[in-house]
Amino acid sequence: MKKRTRILSLLLAVVLSASALVGCENDTKTNGEVKEQKKQNVKAEIPATEYDLVSAGSSKYFILIPENPTEYESYAAEELQLFLKEATGAELAISKENEADTVGSFLSVGNTKASQDAGVAPSYEEAKSNGFVLKTVDDDCYLKGFSDIGTRNSVYEWLSYAVDWEIYASDEIVYTETKDLKLPAFDQTVVPSIEWRANNGPSVYNEELAYRMRKNLFEEVYLHGRLVHNSMTIVDPTVYNFESEEYKDWYSEKIVGDRPAQLCYSNEEMREVYIENLLKQLEGAKANVVILGMEDNVEWCSCEKCAASKEKYGTDAAVMIKFANKVQEAVNEWNKVNRVGQTPIKCVFFAYYATVEPPVTYNKETDKYEPIDESVVLHEDLGVMFAPILASYSQSFTTEMNADVERQLLGWNALTDNIHAWTYAFHTAQNLIFKNTFEIMQENYQLLIDNGTSALYDQTNGAQKVPDTGWASAQFYVQSKLMWDSSLNVKELLDDFFDHYFDTASGTMKEIFNEERSWMSHIYNDLGALGRIGDNLLRAEYWSYPYLKQALSQFEKAYGEIEVYRESDPERYKQLYERITLETIQYRYILISLYGTNYTDAELLNMKYAFKKDAELLGLNVYAEGVSIGVLWDEWGIK
Predict the structure, then answer these.
(1) Chain-centre distance of CA 587, in angstroms?
(2) pLDDT per residue over 20-32, tens digit each?
(3) What are the φ and ψ backbone dihedral angles of 200, each rounded to 5 degrees?
């Protein structure tokens, strides 16, 4: 676990006048009078008990954890302790059960004996892997998940009700300060809309942020972590020499780089070695899912067997399903011996490029998709990682443009109810340009949920080690919220985010943001951009010079709106200044790249160096997928 550093937590007790301009969008007009609409994102009312959890800034309570707590149970207790102290001034001691005075009142975190005695024992059917129970019994309260990941999540739900705790970014956490707090009368079972929820962005380099946003690390879900295109780490073509007569049939004929494009998944000898090597890698596994990952390219094996399968089923996926079914059977036998008393390991394979089409037919009479035959039905423990990389992410999966994507998803759901989804929310060629998925995020998530999706990875720019430009912090926040509860109102989420994250500049920053959302719709709907992750959006026909200049002038207004903090709170001023500057980066990048000839050589050079200074100050390290930002300096001719 990474060492925690002290964070800046701000209490926003009143709504600032600037943010009120944003909030008024929740109102309606009737006969010229503004009537406030009831907000949708409202937490349930939790009554208070008669017991004083905190009184006059002190507490008689302690935090109870198991005698031998897991890493996450200890972490959850520390988080509860930290934020209760921040909000109330009372520091509750953390005591293990073998150390605790059982006479005192406590907040029980995790799988304590006390929770078992109290009958607080959420099952997987009740809470799934990431859900939890909050239960108050007399003067004690229990926070417990089916798993310790669920317990970790439970703390943030508890805090959100007890002290209005909320996180918007790693350095923007708010709560209500109080010296007196009654113990809430909890009786809740909370289950996320999507059982496993991950994306990259800031959470790749900040585990604490991922936990607090109730996200999962990839390593918590998948055995090999982010090494997902892993087939040739299991059957290594340099060990099993792909050029030799003995092993050449184990691989596709096509070469990508210096090795075969794919394994030949119809080759039985290769499959046996694959299984043997994979089972060795499962030893001591912490995650419960292993990805049987094809390589990251569009190629596939075209040997006689693979070609015959594609001819019969109309897709290369049939070969992969039959291969993966056999692997899952072998893993199940291994589980019986090696995972006794533990969650069994299950497999998923990619529906991606060559394998994205499911081997199904459409039954007009039932209006449903059906497997071509029983041999391509997935083993009950096997799942599929549906990754529609060629989709348009400017429109939802239910639109005509994405008709194939919806059809593919429905087809896979006819073969399994265990779907993991990999979607895309960034530009591979221009990481610095806004990828607007706000318009379609909720609808896509809900479609995936309705069709058996239990895990979702919504990929953003994971190589950027800090929050990215292009409204990435807002995107990460909304993604996190909707993955947890897909019914939330997106507009209210954005209002709330902007009010806190940009503070006194909220109104202006949201105006810039919404104008760019409209401009991006214009690019997609009127100017021909497809909305795919590989789109080249750095084209003059997509971005007008007046639009870019107008946006940058609005940022100057936003800078002016945070001046109130320059003297009164220099730390807050610096924080807000850098957040605003971060959002200028994409506009300046486009302006310099497309309209440099509008400036003198000296002016343009100054603009480039000012951009470089800000990018380095903010810690930006890439500007395209796998491309260091240093390459941009070379292209611009600056040092």
Answers:
(1) 25
(2) 323 333 443 333 3
(3) -100, -105
- Whose structure tokens read 């090696």? 338
Name residues whose C-beta falls within 8 Å of residue 121's C-beta, 6 or more positions apart in sequence: 115, 144
CB 362 within 8 A of CB 355: no
Strand-pairing partners, residue 386, are: 351, 421
Q: Specify the 3-state DSSP secondary structure of 581.
A: helix
Residue 467 CA to residue 202 CA, distance in Å, equals 6
Residues 6+ apart with CB under 8 A from 31: none
**CA gap 495, 484 in Å, rounded:** 18
Task: Dump pLDDT digits (tens) for 23-80.
Answer: 333 443 333 343 445 688 888 899 999 999 999 999 999 999 999 999 999 999 999 9
CA dihedral 470, 602, 549, 638 (to 10 degrees): -10
SS3 at position 363: strand
Q: How many CB atoms lie within 10 A of CB 386?
A: 27
Q: What's the whole-model pTM score?
A: 0.93
Confidence grade of residue 6 (pLDDT, cut at 50, 70, 90): very low
Report the share of the chain in percent with pLDDT over 70.
93
Q: Whole-angstrom Cα distance, residue 277 to residue 240?
A: 12
The DSSP call for residue 435 is -
Is residue 288 within 8 Å of 344, Cβ to Cβ? yes
Q: At 39, list the tokens.
A: 């907000």
**H helix count then E strand count, the chain:** 21, 24
Q: How far apart, in whole angstroms, are the C-alpha atoms of residue 309 and residue 319?
A: 7
Which tokens go with 516?
């760019």
CA pair distance 87, 468, nearest whole angstrom: 30
The predicted-structure confidence for 465-493, as pLDDT tens digits, reads as follows 888 899 999 999 999 999 999 999 999 99
CA gyration radius for the chain?
A: 27
* Count of residues in the chain: 639
Q: DSSP letter for 298, please.
A: S
Nearest-angstrom CA–CA distance, 391 and 400: 11
3-state secondary structure of 609: helix
Provide the CA 152 distance to its chain's centre, in angstroms.
17
What backbone torsions phi and psi does residue 229 show, to the nearest 5 degrees? -90, 80
Residue 342 CB: number of other CB atoms within 10 A?
Answer: 10
CB 457 within 8 A of CB 388: no
Adjacency order of strands within the sheet including 196-198: 196-198, 453-459, 419-424, 383-386, 346-351, 289-292
